[in-house]
C-alpha cells in the first residue's frame, strides 16, 4: 500500500477477525475452522483481535500491546500476529546475507509471537519489497515460488494462515506487481501446498487500493461474476486465470478460492477525506469485492488484510477522536457482510505510543458507533 511504504519502519498492524470462530466455507461445501475458537457476540459481531507489524519486536514489550487483546469489561480476546516475510526466507542459509539477516529477524518475531500464544499469519512479499526504492521487479519463477513456500511450511509448521503475495495488483510498486496470470498461478501453487483439511488456509488476491483507485476489482466483463474473461479488470482476469489453470495444478476443474484478501484503503480515504460512507460498488472497494466475488465465487470469505485511517481532520476534535470515528466506520462497513471475516488494522501512528486510547477501545470493544459527532 502506497501510504504504508512511506511510514516509519516501526509502524505496526493489528489483526481482527469477524465471524464465529472464523469458519471458512470450502468450495466443496465443507466448513473449515481457521481460528480454532469462537467468542461472544458484541454489537452483532464476533471478533478476534491481534497485533503484528513489519517485524517490529518492540511491540511485544509495550504495555499497550495487551490493551488490543482486552475489552474494557475485562474480557480477554484471543491473539493473532501477522508479518510480511519474503517468500524465500526459509531457503539456503548462508547464500544470501540479506535473506539470512531477515530470516534471523523473522525467527525472533516468530519465537516471540509463539511464546505470546498468538496465531501467526504471514503475507509473502517480493525479495526487495519495502527495502529498496525504484528497484527492478523481481518475480520468482513458479518453481522458485513453490520451493520457497514449501521450505517455509517445513521450517515453520506452526504458521498456518497465509496470503499468497502482498499487493500483486499494485501498479505503482514495480517490485510488488504481478500480472493476473502470475498472481493466479502463485495462489494455485500456495493452495496446492496448503490444504484446509490439514489446518492450512491461504487467501487469494491481497489486492491494493488507495484514494481514487480501487485496484481493478470492479466487474467489467459483465454483471454476472460467473462469466469469466481475460480482458476486463485485474480481478476479472485473475478469476479467469484461476478458473483456467486450477485443474492443471491438481485442484480440480473450476476451483474457487476459500479466502480472498484485499486492502480497502480506498474506502478509508474516502471516509477521512470526503466523508463518504461507501454506499455502492461503484465507489467502494469493499462492496465491489463482494459484488465481483458473487455467484460460484461467493463461498470465499474476504480478509481485509491491511487498512486504517489516514489522519482525518475534524475541527474541534482530537486526532484520537477522529481516528476512533474512522475505526468504528470500518467496523460498521465490514459488518454489512458475514463473508468479511478478517480485518488487519494498520497503525498509522498513535495507537501504541499512547495518544489514541479511544481508538484502542473502539477496536478492542468492536464499537460500530463511537459517537453521534462522527461524520
Low-confidence stretches at least 5 residues in length (pLDDT < 50)?
1-13, 17-44
Strand content: 15-25%
Tell me, briefly, the overall form.
globular
Topology order in helix (H) and strand (E) letters: HEEEEHEHEHEHEHEHHEHEH
Q: What is the count of structural domains?
A: 1
Q: How many strands, which pairing sense, and closed or not: the largest β-sheet?
A: 9 strands, mixed
* Beta strands, count: 11
What would the average pLDDT be, to the nearest integer?
Answer: 82
What is the H level of CATH, i.e. the homologous superfamily? Answer: Glycosidases
Alpha carbon gyration radius: 19 Å
> What gap, in angstroms, lies between the N and C termini?
25 Å
Individual helix count: 10
Q: Name the strands of the widest sheet in spatial order.
A: 4-1-11-10-9-8-7-6-5
What's the architecture, going by CATH?
Alpha-Beta Barrel
* CATH fold descriptor: TIM Barrel
Given this structure, which CATH class is correct? Alpha Beta
Name the helicity range.
25-40%
Which structural class should the secondary elements be placed in?
Answer: alpha/beta
Amino acid at each position: 500500500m502506497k501510504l504504508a511504504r512511506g511510514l516509519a519502519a516501526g509502524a505496526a498492524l493489528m489483526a481482527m477477525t469477524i465471524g464465529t470462530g472464523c469458519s471458512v466455507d470450502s468450495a466443496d461445501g465443507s466448513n473449515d475452522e481457521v481460528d480454532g475458537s469462537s467468542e461472544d457476540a458484541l454489537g452483532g459481531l464476533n471478533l478476534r483481535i491481534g497485533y503484528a507489524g513489519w517485524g517490529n519486536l518492540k511491540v511485544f514489550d509495550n504495555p499497550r500491546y495487551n490493551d488490543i487483546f482486552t475489552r474494557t469489561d475485562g474480557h480477554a480476546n484471543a491473539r493473532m500476529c501477522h508479518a510480511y516475510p519474503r517468500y524465500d526466507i526459509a531457503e539456503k542459509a548462508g547464500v544470501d546475507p540479506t535473506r539470512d539477516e531477515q530470516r534471523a529477524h523473522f525467527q525472533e518475531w516468530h519465537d516471540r509471537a509463539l511464546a505470546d500464544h498468538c496465531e501467526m499469519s504471514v503475507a509473502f512479499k517480493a525479495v526487495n519489497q519495502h527495502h529498496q526504492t525504484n528497484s527492478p521487479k523481481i518475480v520468482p519463477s513458479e518453481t522458485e515460488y513453490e520451493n520457497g513456500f514449501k521450505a517455509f511450511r517445513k521450517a515453520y509448521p506452526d504458521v498456518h494462515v497465509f496470503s499468497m503475495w502482498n499487493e500483486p495488483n499494485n501498479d505503482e510498486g514495480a517490485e510488488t506487481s504481478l500480472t493476473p496470470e502470475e498472481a493466479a498461478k502463485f495462489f494455485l501453487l500456495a493452495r496446492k501446498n496448503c490444504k484446509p483439511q490439514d489446518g492450512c488456509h491461504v487467501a487469494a488476491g491481497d489486492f491494493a487500493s488507495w484514494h481514487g483507485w480501487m485496484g481493478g476489482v470492479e466487474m467489467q466483463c459483465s454483471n454476472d461474476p460467473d462469466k469469466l474473461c481475460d480482458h476486463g479488470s485485474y480481478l476479472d482476469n485473475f478469476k479467469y486465470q484461476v478458473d483456467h489453470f486450477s485443474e492443471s495444478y491438481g485442484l480440480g476443474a473450476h476451483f474457487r478460492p476459500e479466502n480472498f484478501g484485499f486492502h480497502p484503503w480506498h474506502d478509508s480515504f474516502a471516509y477521512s477525506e470526503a466523508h463518504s460512507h461507501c454506499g455502492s460498488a461503484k465507489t467502494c472497494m469493499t462492496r465491489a469485492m463482494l459484488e465481483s466475488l458473487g455467484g460460484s465465487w461467493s463461498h470465499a470469505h474476504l480478509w481485509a488484510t491491511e487498512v486504517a485511517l489516514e489522519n482525518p481532520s475534524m475541527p474541534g476534535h482530537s486526532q484520537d477522536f477522529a481516528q476512533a470515528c474512522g475505526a468504528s466506520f470500518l467496523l460498521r462497513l465490514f459488518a454489512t457482510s458475514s463473508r468479511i471475516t478478517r480485518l488487519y488494522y494498520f497503525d498509522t501512528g498513535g495507537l501504541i505510543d499512547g495518544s489514541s486510547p479511544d481508538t484502542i477501545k473502539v477496536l478492542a470493544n468492536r464499537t460500530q458507533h463511537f459517537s453521534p459527532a462522527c461524520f
